[in-house]
Amino acid sequence: MRSQPPRLLAATLLVALTAFPLAAPAAAADYERVLNGSFDSGSADPWWPGAGVSNRVTGGELCASVTGGTANPWDALIGQNGVPFESDQSYTFSFDAHATTEQPVTAAAGESVSPYRGIASKQFTVTPQKQRFTFTFTSTLDFPDAGHGQVAFQLGGQDFDNTVCVDNVSVVGGVKPPGGGNPTPTKKVQVDLVAYAPGLPKRATLVSDATAPQAWTLKSSAGATVASGQTTPKGLDATSGDRVHIIDFSSFDTPGSGYTLVVGEESSYPFDISADAFKKLRYDSLAFFYHQRSGTPIEAQYVGDEYARPAGHINVAPNKGDNNVPCRADLACGYTLDVRGGWYDAGDHGKYVVNGGIATWQLLNAYERASLVGDATAFRDGSLAIPEKANGVPDLLDEARWEVDFLLKMQAPGGMAHHKIHDENWTALPTRPELDSEVRRLSATSTAATLNLAAVAAQASRLWKNIDATYAATTLEAARKAYAAAKANPAKIADPNDGTGGGAYSDNVLTDEFYWAASELFATTGEAAYRTDVTSSPHYKAASLSREGFHWGGTAPLGDITLALVPNGLPAADVSAIKSSFATVADQHLTAMSGMGYAAPYDNSTAGYVWGSNSAVLNNATVLALAHDFTGAEKYREGVFEALHYLLGRNPLTTSYVAGYGDQAMRNAHHRFWANQNDPTLPIAPPGSLSGGPNSALQDPVAQRVLVGCPQQKCWVDDIEAYSVNEVAINWNSALAWVSGWAAEKVGTPTTPPTPDCEVGFTAGRWPGGLSAQVKVTNTGTTPWADWKLAFALPGDQRVTAGWSATWSQTGQNVTATSMSWNGAVEAGKSVYIGFNGSGSGGDPTAFTVNGKTCRTA
């Protein structure tokens, strides 16, 4: 979650200072440089506190609590970054101030990044009486358009604790108004900067005021014309503000690299026609998570020298460590937790259960989905560059376990889960994890965090059952305990004001988390109590699935996905209704996309483009992908790739939002280690990292200065300080990993769904309290079986009491039948007949697998 990064200001120019009793502020000049100088909103944003300082807005003032004992004035700071200055121009810096105890304070202007040059500074005395101060200076540096300028108040150098309050802070002057538009250069011909897939539609966007079709040509890398045609005018595209035409060059399908689209004098960036880039992105997007690991060194053999770093937060100075973390002082929980490990959530060093929950679920679901209806070999042991790549466990599960283990550690003794753990105060940009000196604190437990833990732990138990039975039992026990604790504490909401040092992530609607957790526990155990909670939920049968999609605070569709994919014993009609809902919403996306200049499955009709909009595009692409899985309809596969084309450059900013992908890709993510923009010795964002994307609310100083008046899809800038548009986060990259993994699997697949390799016919005679079932298992594939294992779930309380022609076993509602020595070999096209007698009541099973593959039901 974003933060405000403090920087030290050096003083190089002394200026005149006037102090006098408080009077009404002077009339402002035309060009105000400071944001939120009056604090009327009650928020301190974008003012940051330095080390040893805590900010709060009280009584309409920004009050800084300063710890005494520092040596220099600049050892304790409050300030604001991104302030634009122009060289040789005059500025007036004015503010109101008072303090609990009289002390000297320095007001300063300068540079926020190395070498931290100063523009002006002046010391004055602040007393308990509120006064207004003002001084004028001429800038010696040039930071137009919200560059690296900064204003700050230096509050240190005192041997006593104090509180200093400021208000009506203003810096006015210069000859150019702040802002000026997005500095990202754009093309008139917008393409996917990376690749188009053979066999799939290939569309681009032309920005043009022309009302008639325009001639386009497709050029090879050698400059030869390989295809040509006419554009289709679309007119004004409201979301981008562009007048656009659509270029459809789908008829050309020859793989190659370095293609360009040309219209008149305008040319696109080069791109490929190839499946390779999508397959590479599958692994680069997953590599993000190893980079984000806490509590372990990131080793050069896996990431290269540029991205290698020591372990962070392992109690090695200056870290305070995560091995013995207490609760926030105001909580007084009476215990500490060892919460080492896990992933850093975003660009800061916080770790959050609700973000970790959905991110881990998406990685685990990507594996589970591939195992049930796709190709899980893509995630085999050795597929990722991680330390566990030769332990015999699929690497995707290894990476996910790094976070599952952390989530288990966040469980309090009574079963509830702590909402998050992070620094007591925001750290500076840059701050490498191993150099973070802030105290670490646990926030309170919350119902949302507890249900995230329950859901993911239950899901993990299901996936590790045949890999590590002991671990599967441990995670299931934690899931049961968490779910019971959440039901006992159904409305413990995370504090929405707990946003110092880490994001608040408060969520006051929890029915979706209850549904998700119950769905995972039911799918894993088949137990009636969880089934009842699932079927009685207002979210049952995808009732809340819409074009808005899902996210960390809206998780009900995650339960729908599990219930649709994992055999579970629900009525076939209910499972069918869930699958149909995905197709219905997918159709809504496709209808909306057909009218867009830059097609993306995103609903901006209510909130515009929001913080992390790119993750919403990808989560909605997941809905399209699952609609394809459930129906086999080609239109949904095409929609997924359209979403990827938008993210990889076919957008109004001619930018790939994925680092390392395309000639103009995101570089300067809001991140404390990938901070090359602020420190040239540090790296840029690694390949496969996803930017949050356009955010029309403009919630950071750089966006507010540079992007004023931006059309929704253009509210983005590649700047490390622009945290509301260019942050990275685990739950955004998990969405990219899910979709890119699916795309890599589907990029070369036929357009019609494959025929299942098995078919199961199930008939049963029933009487009160009992049944006798006959099962026909047919090999509908092309190769013989050497042996077979049938699996299904028995609804209700039905139990197998005796069976024949197979070895039968049952756990909860889940039944398996394994071949005997005499009937294991089944030739292609042949069948085997088995059966069982049972007790209890319920309906027929609705889904079957043989040797792990989903079967057609006869």
From TrEMBL:
Keywords assigned by UniProt, alphabetized: Carbohydrate metabolism, Cellulose degradation, Glycosidase, Hydrolase, Polysaccharide degradation, Signal
Reactions listed under catalytic activity: Endohydrolysis of (1->4)-beta-D-glucosidic linkages in cellulose, lichenin and cereal beta-D-glucans
Active site as annotated: D718, E727
EC primary class: hydrolase
Secretion signal span: 1-28
EC number(s) reported in the record: 3.2.1.4
Gene3D superfamilies reported for this sequence: 1.50.10.10, 2.60.40.290, Galactose-binding domain-like (2.60.120.260), Immunoglobulins (2.60.40.10)
Domain CBM2: 751-858
PROSITE patterns (UniProt xref): CBM2, GH9_3
A molecular function GO annotation: cellulase activity
SUPFAM superfamilies named in the record: Carbohydrate-binding domain (SSF49384), E set domains (SSF81296), Galactose-binding domain-like (SSF49785), Six-hairpin glycosidases (SSF48208)
GO biological process: cellulose catabolic process
Similarity remark: Belongs to the glycosyl hydrolase 9 (cellulase E) family.
Protein's name in the database: Endoglucanase
Lineage, opening ranks: Bacteria, Bacillati, Actinomycetota, Actinomycetes, Pseudonocardiales
